[in-house]
Design brief:
Rossmann fold, four-stranded antiparallel beta sheet
């Protein structure tokens, strides 16, 4: 059984979500503004397995709430609800640290499926951090399946732990940062466009391109590069997008 925090200021939506999550067997807490959400998530007895977080909230909005959580090294999975489905808004949520998003209005069955997926992914992550579970998984993993870690230039991307290790430092990545770096590594040496990243990494389809992806590149450069202002790994390809050079 999981404990879920629903952060939604519209009572009829909050209670509808609560009713359906409880019908699935979860324990559910509900708050109506950003400040109460942070208080609930920061309290000693406030352990939650997942947060369903609306963007438009009184007090602090959803973007501020999730950014504050990540700054405090709290990596509870977050499903963000937004009435604004533009790629720029979705990417802002991902950049803040969201794990998934759902535009309003939504079908309850879709929300429940997203919740199940995030809880399942969190459970897999916990299991992967157990050494015995990891060994067993490695034995069962098919030879052609993607490895749990990707190594380049003395750096290691751990896909299970969502962690990038650079020398003696370790950086905890969001799911979206990890997916982006994995995509760039799989296409190492090739120039990839921003639109390709939006479509292949996040499944966003839009007629016009967006430069919001640049913020993710800036953050990855801080992790990867000795001098982020003069990158050697993550290069800008003018007029196209970006290219990752694994071994400069």
């Amino acid at each position: 059984m999981s404990r879920i925090l629903v952060v939604e200021d519209e009572p009829h939506i909050a209670q509808g979500i609560r009713f359906n999550l409880e019908a699935e067997g979860h324990d559910v807490d509900v708050v109506g503004d950003g400040n109460d959400a942070l208080a609930a998530l920061s309290s000693e007895d406030g352990r939650h397995d997942l947060v369903v977080l609306d963007v438009m909230l009184p007090g602090r909005d959803g973007f501020e709430v999730i950014a504050e959580l990540r700054r405090a090294s709290r990596f509870v999975p977050v499903l963000m609800l937004t009435a604004r489905g533009r790629p720029e808004d979705v990417l802002k949520g991902f950049e803040s640290g969201a794990d998934d998003y759902l535009p309003k209005p939504f079908e309850l069955q879709i929300l429940l499926a997203r919740v199940r997926g995030l809880l399942r992914r969190a459970r897999w992550l916990r299991e992967s951090l157990d050494a015995e579970a990891r060994v067993a998984a490695d034995e069962e993993r098919a030879a052609d399946e993607e490895p749990a870690t990707l190594t380049f230039a003395g750096k290691t991307l751990d896909l299970h732990a969502l962690e990038l290790r650079v020398g003696d430092r370790a950086f905890h990545l969001t799911v979206m940062e990890c997916d982006l770096l994995r995509y760039l590594l799989k296409n190492a040496g090739k120039a990839v466009s921003r639109r390709a990243i939006l479509e292949d990494v996040w499944g966003l389809h839009e007629d016009t391109d967006t430069r919001a992806i640049d913020n993710f590149i800036v953050r990855l450069r801080r992790y990867l590069e000795q001098n982020p202002t003069q990158p050697r790994h993550l290069l800008t390809v003018r007029g196209v997008g970006y290219k990752l050079v694994a071994e400069p």
